[in-house]
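Contributing: when you submit paired examples, paste them exactly as shown. First protein:
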Amino acid sequence: MYNLLKNIDISLSEEQKIIFNKFTDLFIQYNQNVNLISRNEVNFLFEKHIYDSLSINLFLKNYKNNNMKMLDIGTGGGFPAIPCSILYDNLNIFAVDSINKKINFIKYISNTLKLNNIHPICSRMEDLNIKYKNSFDYAASRAMAELRIILEYSIPYIKKDGFFIAYKSIKADEELHNAQNALKILNTKLIEKIDYKLPIKENNKRVLLIFQKQSDCPVDFPRKNGIIKKNPL
C-alpha cells in the first residue's frame, strides 16, 4: 500500500514503513476500547486517514526546513499529527484537542514509538496558552470545522508570513466564499489550492487550501468558543 504514496511525492524508508506498520496495529487495538474513529473507518485507516494526512507533503515538500513548528488543530486520533511526525522527524508538531482520551492516545503512541517530535496538548483552541500566539511556522486542521471558524482558531497562533493548511473536500469553494470576511479581519490570504485524490473509489476528491498570514491580526482573537460558533467572522 505504501507505493500509493508516490502519488503525493512520498517515498518512505524501510524504517518509516516499520513505524507506520506498528502505528497501524496499535491504533486498531486501541480503537477497540476507545472510540477514536468509527469501526467502519478503521477498515480505511490508511486510505482515509494516513494517506490523507500525508497529502500535506504536496505543500510542505517545497517549504519545510529544519526545526520548524506546526500546530495541528483538533487532532482527534492524531491526524495529521502522528503520520507527519513519522514522515518529518525534524518538524516539531504540537497536537491540540479538547478530548482527553484522544490526547492520552497520542501520548501513548509518542512514548511507544519514540516519536519525540510530537507534543500533545489537551485544550480548547480558544483557551490555548497565550505563549503560543504568533509562534508557529505552520498550522493545519483536518475535518474539524467550517473554514471561517477554523481560521479564527488558527491564524492568531501563526507567525507573520507563516502558513495555515486546511484539508477540505466537496464544500471547499463554498466555505472559501463564506470566509472572505474572516480572511480580511485576520490579515490572511489564500495563496494556493492543491487538488489530490484519496486511493478510494468514491468521494475521493480532496483539496488543500493554503493560506499565508500577511501581518499580525487583532490581539483579541480568537474569541471565546460560544461567540466564534454563534457569530462567525
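Second protein:
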Amino acid sequence: MKTSWLVCYHKFVMAKNIEKKKALELRKKGYSYSQIRKEINVSKSTLSVWLADYPLSKSRIDELRGKSAKRIEKFRITMRKKRDATELESFKIVKKEFGQLSSREILIAGLFLYWGEGTKAASYTTALSNTDPDVMRFYMKWLNLLGVGNDQVVVRLHLYRGMNIDNEVEYWSDYLKIPIQCFRKPYIKKSKLSDITYLSGFKHGTCNILYYGKELYLYIKSGLKYMRTYTRP
C-alpha cells in the first residue's frame, strides 16, 4: 500500500517536472501566461512561481499587448475597412435618395460653389481655383451647363518647385478634358511640395479656370444676388 502511494507520488512529481520544463521552454520563446496555459493545464499561480526568474522583455510585452508595428498596421487596416464599409452604406443611401441631379439642381449647386470659392472682384471674369480635381471637374460641368465650351476657358496652374510641369499640365488636361492649348505658363511657387503639411490636397498643385465674358459674369452675379435674398429676414 505504501509502495503504491510512493509510485503515484513519483509519477505526479515527474509529470509536474515535465510540465515545468515545457513551461520554461515556451517562456523562453516569448509565450505569455495565457498562451502557456493553453498548452499546459496548470494554474496561473503555479506559473508565476515556476517562471519568476524568466520575465518577458518590454518589447515582447508591448507586442503581446498589440503595440508591435505589424499589429498596429493590421489594426489600422481593419479599422479602415470598417470605415470604408460604413461610408459605402451611407453613400448607397444618399445615392438612392438624391437620384440623378437635374440641370436646375446642378445650376444651383454650382452657384453655391461659386459663392464660396469663385472670384467676384475681377470685372467680367468668371474664375474659380481649387486643389481638388473633382471640384474643378464639377465647376467645368457647371460652365458647360451655362454654355461655356471646354476650349473657351483659360487654365492657370500653381505648382511647386520640383514638380514635373509637363506631367501636371497633362494630368489636369486629361482629367478636365480641356485642350492643352488652353493652359498658360504655370506659376511655380518657390516652396517644395514636401514643405506642405497636407500633401494629399496639393499633390497636383492648384488649378485656376477662368472664362472672360460680360454676359456670363453678369448672369452669375445676378444669381448670387438673388440667392442672398434668402439670407435676409
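If you have annotations for the second protein, write them as plain sentences, like these:
The first strand starts at residue 125 and ends at 130.
The chain has a mean pLDDT of 87.
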